[in-house]
């Protein structure tokens, strides 16, 4: 990908901004994800199981097996097998719905939250490391730009996993 640099006299086009944003996010996320996923290789958790944990964390509430399957784009049978494995590992809890005993609700256990938070903490540490390497003026410019975007009405909704962690830290 070739990233063009608009001159100081012209505003960056949507396409130029898109290109540099994709390049930036790709590099940042790849670095953070590689380190964060290293911890998964030493566990019995597959990527499918980990996706299940992340969906449950992101929703912040117990889901029925059907709801969970829809969110994961898996069949009810495949979702049930994922849940069985995660229950066996002590990472999720499966209970009857209080209003309809035919429905099973799945939620993270404390240990499940610990696994998800360890993964997110690893990513956040990589982000902190990146920000810490920036010169002060560039860091301030990045803060100003991102703060304006986050506090404005430019994003349709926040990432549910990070929103979950924010609420968790505040409580």
From TrEMBL:
Matches recorded under Pfam families: MarR_2
Coiled-coil features, chain-numbered ranges: none
Keywords noted in UniProt: DNA-binding, Transcription, Transcription regulation
Gene Ontology molecular function terms on file: DNA binding; DNA-binding transcription factor activity
Protein name: MarR family transcriptional regulator
Residue ranges constituting the HTH marR-type domain according to the UniProt record: 14-151
Gene3D superfamilies according to UniProt: Winged helix-like DNA-binding domain superfamily/Winged helix DNA-binding domain
Record's signal peptide: none
PANTHER family, A to Z: TRANSCRIPTIONAL REGULATOR, MARR, TRANSCRIPTIONAL REPRESSOR OF EMRAB OPERON
